[in-house]
Amino acid sequence: MTVGSLLGRGRELLRSASNAAAELEAEVLLAHILGVPRARLRSHPQAPVTAACQARYLDGIARCAGGEPLAYLTGKREFWSLDLTVTPAVLIPRPETELLVERALVLGTAAEARVADLGTGSGAVALALARERPRWQIVATDVSAAALAVARANAAGLGAARVEFLEGSWCAPLTGRFDLLVSNPPYVAAGDPALAALRFEPQLALTPGPDGLAALRTLARAAPAHLAPGGWLLLEHGATQGAAVRAELVAAGLAHVRSHRDLAGHERMTEGQR
After folding, report:
1. 87-273 domain in CATH 3.40.50.150?
2. Is the pLDDT of residue 35 over 90?
3. For the residues 29-45, what does the mean pLDDT come to?
4. Which of 5, 7, 241, 262 has the smallest number of CB atoms closer than 10 Å to its CB?
């Protein structure tokens, strides 16, 4: 088969599985397997493809058609212009989480600060902040040793040697006070039908159990003991959880509590100041 015919087959199979991104995913997967830029697929459609690459591609297409995220097949996902490694041990970074980074940079204007990313997963938020604020002292925690291995590998690949990774639940590994605490915790209730579409991603990073607010509540209550005076807590949450998270931050004694909307217009993260 040629590049063009194989790509056409991939698109057809993904479209038949109602994949809304069939065109893009078919191209990205083939470019990844062949080790070439996507533009080369279009400029050389008659190039032959080896039988081994054909088999690998069609297997990947079948997995995509079955709902497996493309990022796990390529092992890569871009976040904040960083090329991150991702595996099934970590949640795939979403564009809406960049709002968490944006707000941290707005609130943390000092050249030097102590910052903790709680539940770091792939390290996406911590590493984005390290890129933008190279003199910040950043600690990233996660309860999953497998996730921390991915985060450390990403840090090494990006040359972010100053980020410290600690194993433990939320604030438990922290010592001292921080100017910023940021977190994208699990916030989907265990019974939410939306979890079915996310079945390939680590459930530990998606749901805290029957109560979708459980992790958010834990972080709100723990944060004041770890924040420096004037320090901020920033939490990503579900599109319908803004009011409840604001109430938790106020109950924890934080001030200037406010929520911010993502590009889709949903309340996506809430912040409060000690």
Report:
1. yes
2. yes
3. 94
4. 5
